[in-house]
């Protein structure tokens, strides 16, 4: 059976009592660009099955992925999972199934799955490794009825191998391409999830962020990305970088879809201590209750112009944000303009802030612990990975990329005085910078263009949501980022959803050369 198309069905209604013939055009369901709600409605109306949906996405992956490189591998069990989901739907035709039931999802290739899929962070060094169990977020997605469609590509090792590595590139996945302008940046490290969702190779995906890895690809690929408060989603079973900043979040085409995924993956996990403290932020009834059309009403939004609003070389983006600010005011938001975060220059400099120092030490500790826990693995330590890369430089095609970050990390020796000082400095910068600004002006969120605010949110473990905001003169997408204090996801969702509905900025990809 062919997947439903966007063609029109003609319904002829003959109303003899009026002596007239009415021609009513009814648009058939289209999988492409469909949201979760639209897909679920199609399930209920017998217009679509999970198997048909999964087959459509697998077909799109075969058609588009040789160019876009958004997917590393597909799950050979995906269709079987979809058939099981359809059977459950038939068994409970009027039952209440989770909103993700029967919905395929792609996972960034650093999120562990206990199945036939590999978990390699895009590196051949981990090819053939076997994880002990599903990552907690994957276990939650399975319980919600989601279909694990496959693994999405990424910047290799979540962009933490080398300062010379291209964004969106990995040895296993190749170079990811932006579906709007193929020669444009994809950004990383969650490039594959963003590319795949933007190009309709899947409806929803899951990425990870340490510093910008969700917000940046969301902005460049015109999708919605939610970077949750650190600890809101479990990191257990995910290839780590640093526990103080790592977080797992959705990349989707709409805010509502991202929120449905977020609802499914948040919660306490005894395997991740950070979730104990963060779980207090999860509202009773979940996050979907904050999908409010009038969510901008009476919100206090801080516009941090310096240094983020520099549109010298992009006048179309400047005009877009002027229009967006008018829209926000018309929707009832109060904009506090021309704000600045104290010590912002230091915060944006990873060496000066201490972020780089802490990250290098924590990477070695946590990566070694992850590799040790694997049931099967060709490498068992960061030192083994470095040796593998040196031995297999031709296989990895990384002679020029190198591995300077790995080498610097391997040279560290635990958390000493230098690292403790760096962590304290980051905490103080957050307290006396972002937190102080938010409280001083009683802000619900700050507003910045693109992703450049990511380090501010990263070093403090704060949440952020990127929403499509427009396209520049070359057709390259850009987003708008709303950032808030820990646990402020409800406010950010209200703001982002209301902004999305008011602006309707996102367009399907154009695949320009």
Topology:
Layout: E1 8-15, E2 20-27, H1 36-44, H2 50-68, E3 71-74, H3 78-91, E4 104-108, H4 136-143, E5 147-152, H5 156-159, E6 169-170, E7 174-175, H6 191-198, E8 204-209, H7 215-220, E9 224-227, E10 247-252, H8 255-265, H9 274-278, E11 300-304, H10 315-330, E12 334-339, H11 344-347, H12 350-353, H13 355-373, H14 382-391, H15 393-396, H16 404-410, H17 417-440, E13 445-449, H18 454-460, E14 464-471, E15 477-483, H19 489-503
Parallel strand pairs: 4-5, 4-8, 11-12, 11-13
Antiparallel strand pairs: 1-2, 3-5, 6-7, 8-10, 9-10, 9-14, 13-15, 14-15
Helix pairs in contact: 2-3, 13-16, 13-17, 17-18
Helix content: 25-40%
Question: Helix segment count?
Answer: 19
- β-strand number: 15
Radius of gyration: 23 Å
Quote the beta fraction.
15-25%
Fold-level CATH name: Amidase signature (AS) enzymes
What does this structure look like?
The chain has a single domain, classed as Amidase signature (AS) domain (Amidase signature (AS) enzymes, Alpha-Beta Complex). Strand 4, helix 4 and strand 5 (147-152) form a beta-alpha-beta unit. The chain has helices at 36-44, 50-68, 78-91, 136-143, 156-159, 191-198, 215-220, 255-265, 274-278, 315-330, 344-347, 350-353, 355-373, 382-391, 393-396, 404-410, 417-440, 454-460, 489-503; strands spanning 8-15, 20-27, 71-74, 104-108, 147-152, 169-170, 174-175, 204-209, 224-227, 247-252, 300-304, 334-339, 445-449, 464-471, 477-483. The protein is globular. It has an eleven-stranded mixed β-sheet with strand order 3-5-4-8-10-9-14-15-13-11-12, with helices on both faces. Residues 1-26 have low confidence and may be disordered. It is of the alpha/beta class and 513 residues long. The longest helix has 24 residues, at 417-440.
